[in-house]
Amino acid sequence: MNIHEYQGKEILSSFGVRVQRGIVAQDAKEAVDAAKKLTEQTGTGWHVIKAQVHAGGRGKGGGVKLAKNLQEVEEIAGQIIGMNLVTPQTSAEGKKVHQVLVAEDVYYPGDSEPEEYYMSVLLNRATGKNMIMYSTEGGMDIETVAEQTPHLIFNEEIDPAVGLMPFQARRIAFNLGLSGAAFKEMTKFVMALYEAYTKSDSSLFEINPVLKTSDDKIMAVDAKVTLDDNALFRHKDYAEMRDTREENPVEVEAKAVGLNYVDLDGNVGCMVNGAGLAMATMDLIKQAGGEPANFLDVGGTADAKRVEEAFRLILKDEKVKAILINIFGGIVRCDRVAQGIVDAYKNMGDAIKVPIIVRLQGTNADIAKELIDNSGLDVHSAVEFQEAADKVHEVLA
Questions:
Q1: pTM of the full predicted structure?
Q2: Residue 175, annotated as binding a ligand
Q3: CATH architecture assigned to 21-105
Q4: Long-range contact list for 233-236, CB < 8 A, 24+ apart?
């Protein structure tokens, strides 16, 4: 589950990680009030206005701007809130901005120049260990750094038996070229950051940039946090941070009715029971010359109501030219699934205007095929994978 920057900073701060302070605002007036409050708390005269959307690269799209007075705070907040922000990580349509974070200016003058670093905590799937990835090249896309200057990216792997050790935090600070007070600050920052990552059950913490201020403080200026959905039962307060406005509305609807659905860009809708079979079905569609329009796992209870809900979700995508239903009857009997398909089809009337290919294999598959073939509906039945692929190719031709 992705969360907003301000929410990520709340989690970081709760574990003792120093963050750039800010207040979220829903409109321009709230932004001005937030700026006044921040000035009282921090003494800052300038403020950074940041669009709160689930996408990186906000600055490139005009979603992060500096305001030097309250009038500029109101003007910039008014411009950003309500805009469709297009970044390298959004679609061409962009994402609508519903709120902004009014943050303190932390690039103040002092004894030394501020410096920016990159730091993330994530699982290294190749080794099965958590790792801290970091670089002196903060504020840039890490992909660009990896491509152009890979020697400036460092990795610190953590032994799960003992966790992050203090000497590893010191090594990170050393590799970043820090010394004195900034060195000590960075070691504390890294230890607190890793504790926040593990205890919040996150799958990603990305801080870009981590800032060394002109007076040698280390803080998170940004925070991209992804929480593990499977662990949210342990964090009821984190679960409440979900912003469904930032998610695909069809995926949100599917989740509400208990279906596992992921929207894709293809032209053949999938309705499958089981994630593994769903992946194989998408390969089947590609083999037949089509492109999968979605991943949809109906689970083990493919009755008429569930199938009808699945149909409605798939048909919300106007690009869908055909639907492939691929069910293995292990826990659920194929004849019951077939009857569910027939009932759902009849219930939906003229709403289904694309051809449907049904492959049912397993318990009572022969009875299921007979039910489909004798239904009188525009449904093509198949038994073997290749047969289903041929029918998909046929209806798309």
A1: 0.83
A2: no
A3: 2-Layer Sandwich (3.30)
A4: 234/201, 235/200, 235/201
